[in-house]
Amino acid sequence: xxxxxxxxxxxxxxxxxxxxxxxxxxxxxxxxxxxxxxxxxxxxxxxxxxxxxxxxxxxxxxxxxxxxxxxxxxxxxxxxxxxxxxxxxxxxxxxxxxxxxxxxxxxxxxxxxxxxxxxxxxxxxxxxxxxxxxxxxxxxxxxxxxxxxxxxxxxxxxxxxxxxxxxxxxxxxxxxxxxxxxxxxxxxxxxxxxxxxxxxxxxxxxxxxxxxxxxxxxxxxxxxxxxxxxxxxxxxxxxxxxxxxxxxxxxxxxxxxxxxxxxxxxxxxxxxxxxxxxxxxxxxxxxxxxxxxxxxxxxxxxxxxxxxxxxxxxxxxxxxxxxxxxxxxxxxxxxxxxxxxxxxxxxxxxxxxxxxxxxxxxxxxx
Length: 366
Hints:
Blueprint: H1 3-6, H2 8-23, H3 28-36, H4 38-52, H5 85-98, H6 105-112, H7 114-123, H8 142-157, H9 164-174, H10 188-209, E1 211-215, H11 227-253, H12 270-275, H13 277-283, E2 285-293, E3 300-304, E4 321-329, E5 334-341, E6 364-365
Antiparallel strand pairs: 1-3, 2-4, 4-5, 5-6
Helix pairs in contact: 5-6, 5-7, 8-9
């Protein structure tokens, strides 16, 4: 090949550049200046956007064509909504086709997460329904929760009650720093803050593990028939007794004349009743006695949702009880409580007849 042939293309290239220069075409210097000019760069981007989307809406903003997929949004109207990951991937692909350098801040964030979202969906197709990238994260107490679930199941197998207080104590036993921990000498505000966090965690824990709060199924009690009428009759009897006692107190304070009969309570005026009201209330009291069990069985327990059996076993002492007597006067004074035990009383050795009459008395008052 001759030297003239080898130099031909170079001469042609030089001739082409010379003809462009003579015709006013852009030279390399002009292109470098345009690249260095930010205004020229912005105009180039606007031209690209206008080429991809020449349509303008009524507000003068770029109007994009409608997407070919439905918008899956959940949340309050007018508020911040949430979208599943499958919709985020479709929106990112749609935005990339229209214009990758434009879009709402939320869509721009989806574009940054596109590869990460695709990897998660390909690894687990069910993840496409999730609303967040990090949804389904493990709880901070995940290592202690399994041991806690096993403990609750073991308690329920033996029909033992298991409530929120027992769960809280067991959680702190398994993981003392759970939910920030609660020291033994915690201040009232620290204990309150921990209980607030625990109540929120306790609700999520039950939902995660399928537990619900159940009332025991082996105890049942109904109100007797006619209890409303009995309550009304009791109130009427109490009113009559109070009025009668008020008349007695007034007659004692203001003795009648020898030829007059004592005034009765129903004949007292409102002023006369008010004058003896304080003394009546000093004598009026409300007393009640209630049985107290030596072993207090719990009424609620955690059990698997849907389970029909929620029995709670006890240690066998739930039927042994004592009677607690409480009373309070109408003026607000409280009477010291009385406790009644039923059992074999202690007989000192000095008492005659020891060993002959040791049967338990009906009641012994402490």
